[in-house]
């Protein structure tokens, strides 16, 4: 289930990018932060804490300020990206549900293997395989596969033994903040007030979500 949700998130996000802008894709993907507590309540009957709701909405607002451009209209690509957000939310929720029953390394390996197999099937069935790799592109693919995917998802899986699903989703929304920071450092983008406000809101959301901690996770830790 984890691997299928992860594959669905990656696939729908990439397909959606063909029909929408990168900024709207980033924002709509970030809506998973408000979907996670809903999934936890509906399927796990887990109480939604007020600080979790406030933190999730604050993170969503921050992501919107960082990502959205004028003229936001929902289209085909936006709908696909929303489905991608549902898949990522499901992946976070399912990780929190099973991480205390299955070793994080095994859980991560199984979800990576499942996502890989489904991606391979998708590659073969869609046809048009044409590989002309350069050294630069291969290094990029290896980094994305090894560091950004396998290692990062293992760290997320392990960390969710100690942080609840909603807290994890809010902390993961920091991705947009780091994306902004690296765009300034590497791409030399100009620092704008929107960048500052959006980043501060997301940082604030992380702090709010973790105030008082999670009693259930503390007991398990």
Rg, Cα atoms, Å: 18 Å
Low-confidence stretches: none
Individual helix count: 11
Q: Tell me the total number of β-strands.
A: 0
Could you give a short account of the major beta sheet?
none
**Beta fraction:** under 5%
For the record, give the distance between the C-alpha atoms at the N and C termini, rounded to a whole number.
25 Å
Helix content: over 70%
Shape descriptor reads: globular
Oligomer: single chain
SSE class:
mainly alpha
What is the count of distinct domains?
A: 1
**Overall pLDDT metric:** 83
H/E series, N to C? Answer: HHHHHHHHHHH
Keywords:
mainly alpha
Walkthrough of the structure:
The chain is mostly helical and 221 residues long. The chain has one domain. It has eleven helices and no strands. The longest helix is centred in the middle third of the chain and has 25 residues, at 135-159. It is globular and about 50 Å long.
